[in-house]
Amino acid sequence: MTLCLLLLTTVGLAATVFAPRALLRAGWPEREPVTALWVWQCLVGTVLLSCLSALLLGAAALLETVRARLFAPAPPAVVDAYDLTSVPPWTALLTLLLACGAAWTGAMLARELVNDRRRRRVRRAHLRERAPDLPAGLAVPAGPLLVLEDEYPDAWLLAGATPQLVITTGALRRLTGRQLDAVLTHELGHARAHHDWLLHLSGALAAGFPRVPLFAHFADQTHRLVELAADDTASRRCGHLTTALALIELNQHRGVLSCDSPRRLLHARVERLLDPPPRLGATQRAATATFAALTPLIPLLITLAPGLAA
Prior knowledge:
Layout: H1 2-25, H2 28-31, H3 33-62, H4 64-70, H5 76-82, H6 91-130, E1 145-148, E2 155-158, E3 164-168, H7 169-174, H8 177-192, H9 195-208, H10 213-238, H11 240-251, H12 264-274, H13 282-294, H14 297-309
Parallel strand pairs: 1-3
Antiparallel strand pairs: 2-3
Helix pairs in contact: 1-3, 1-10, 1-14, 3-4, 3-6, 3-10, 3-13, 3-14, 5-14, 6-9, 8-10, 8-11, 9-10, 10-11, 11-12
């Protein structure tokens, strides 16, 4: 069991510290944001599975109740293969730290979901206050598309069980038909890919463990990559130029064309749409996605190796 714990700790540290550095230095995530999002999720899954596996093994070694439940269907030879009786002195401390980390992770996720529900309730209440100003037939914000009378050009997705697209009349006046289609396709891309859940997960982990490199980079990269992925969805349907022009029209008053703008992501998105980077080949994308999907299996194989060998 000592070897298993050491290997799980090594895998978790490698995925937490070294893998994010290599991924941040790579140039292909800019070209393949969907694949990059998948790789980041697999890295996070690897760390979480490593911690969970180490927690279960440590708890089984220290507590007879946990051991009996965890190995109830296993034959005696499997239990003997894990050598749970020889517990190193640092196992108790490691198990306690992992248990606290698991509880804290659950608390952060719960807080993120509660805060998101509160924010959505406030936003929907705000929309209901503005509903009397809507044209006839749009008085109740219950459909998939809601138009607000507002000179300020804006469009966003109100996430929830039934996602709702919100767009202002100021945006409608600025955008052409094709540009409007690009904006709506962009927001629908967020809804169909459930980017809101990914943002909640990355935000909760970064808030709970701000000093963990993987979680901090995961939150930053998720905010960037989901926008690039939605841009690609819109550009495939409406064209790169149309999507770039729609983005400029909606954000020109925010200084999107200025290199010194604090909204550097908007500037980078426009440049990327106007000068699309070369995409990876289908074989390269498949190989990268497959390799990333196999990474979370490493802690599972380490954990199950003694039992399989028995």
